[in-house]
Amino acid sequence: MGRLSRAELQEQNRAKVLAAARDEFAERGFRDAKVDGIAERAGLTRGAVYSNFPGKRALYFAVLAGLAERESVSESEYESASVSDAGPASEAVSETTRDALGALARAWVARLPLADTDEEHGPARLGMYVMPEVLAEGRIRRPFAQLMKLDAILLGLALERLRPPGEHDGSGSQVRVAEAALTTLHGASRLAAVAPGFVEPFNVVSAVEQLAGLALHDWWPSPHVITQAWPTDEPWDPPRVRDAVRGEPALLTDDGVVAILGLHRIEAVEEAVRAAPPGARITAVLVTGDPAELAPLARLTVADLCNCLRRAFPPSAWPRLQVVFDESGAFAAAAGLPAVSDATEAAVRVEAGRIVARADGRGACHAAASAEVAAPAAAADGPG
């Protein structure tokens, strides 16, 4: 076997560090885990660990994100086999919003440490320090709040697709109901971690089910600041990426809107969803100025919700919104953004495999989604 390239060696060392960190956190817990212990388990130096991750918290988020995404891949493979071998997929047979919310809550509480007999640092308790670490710094709390907004949008859109026509008031938005459900479930998670034995799972499931009939007067206001989209005609050749919602390759050739959003502006994707023409595919591309620490937190937060969502909702009700992570900036560059930050908000409109409109700044998602665009001219027409 030939000598590994520098990139291959770095990837191999990164995998060793992640595996060692997973064992260290599982055995000692996040608080008592040591970077030196992780380095020793990996057979590497302390410097090699820090060359791959800026600190223990970044490693912790990356370990949990990897575990959550591995669960997503396993579920996707199971669902594909179920469809091919036995028709419609898996456990997701909910027909009403109440059924779906109940199934979501059951999937959520099933992974919680519900009794004080659970191992102190076992798998069920591995993620118990995520919220304390989020609370530790404002620079993490703000992106996390936006990630929670994204989770609520995804769940709300799934609920909307499951409701029969006419069974709603106003705009029919279910995002506020989704926010209430997530508030209940995250509260249960915190109490399960700090007060073992207190959380009664059946009561949590029942409470979340009742939210299906709750009138929260959810409506969609028009954005106050509208950035103008400008027409263009550019090639669209995005890199191949994975859709975190479905746990499979993203579909990027369909007509629709691609929103490139920093972790401070994620909620703007709902503007694209509400303003886009019927049937248009919306893709949220999440970018950040701190990919080493915030990108794993983003992957973890979305995967945790979507793992439960796929168990609770039939595929026909999954939101028509894709979420992809662009830690390297390659996807943003393909959309014409050479640099990104946590404040980035930009969007492109894709028609017939070409970028036909783009917008930048606050309101870009709404502008690109609602823009009236002409079909791109045929290449044979040429200039003049």
Topology:
Layout: H1 6-32, H2 35-42, H3 46-52, H4 56-86, H5 97-109, H6 130-135, H7 138-162, H8 175-194, H9 201-210, E1 230-235, E2 242-243, E3 248-249, E4 256-262, H10 269-275, E5 281-287, H11 294-312, E6 321-325, H12 330-334, E7 345-351, E8 354-360, H13 364-370
Helix pairs in contact: 1-2, 1-4, 4-11, 5-8, 5-9, 5-11, 7-8, 7-11, 10-13
Reading the helices and strands in chain order gives HHHHHHHHHEEEEHEHEHEEH
Q: Please identify, by name, the CATH architecture of the domain at 230-374.
A: 3-Layer(aba) Sandwich
- Broad shape: globular
End-to-end Cα distance: 57 Å
Structural class: alpha/beta
| Residue-averaged pLDDT | 86
Q: How many strand elements?
A: 8
Number of helices: 13
Percent in helix: 40-55%
Largest sheet report = 6 strands, mixed
Low-confidence stretches: 80-90, 378-384
Rg: 22 Å
- Write the CATH homologous superfamily of the domain at 230-374: Glutaredoxin
Lateral arrangement of strands in the main beta sheet: 1-8-7-4-5-6
CATH fold annotation of the domain at 230-374: Glutaredoxin
At the first level of CATH, the class of the domain at 230-374 is Alpha Beta
Beta-sheet strand percentage? 5-15%
How would you describe this protein?
With 384 residues, this protein is an alpha/beta fold. It starts with 5 loop residues before the first helix and ends in a 14-residue tail after the last helix. Strands 1-8-7-4-5-6 form a six-stranded mixed sheet, covered by helices on one side. Strands 2-3 form a two-stranded antiparallel ribbon. A hairpin with a 4-residue loop joins strand 2 and strand 3. The C terminus is likely disordered. It is 48% helix and 11% strand. Among the domains are: 52 residues, Orthogonal Bundle (Arc Repressor Mutant, subunit A); 145 residues, 3-Layer(aba) Sandwich (Glutaredoxin), CATH 3.40.30.10.
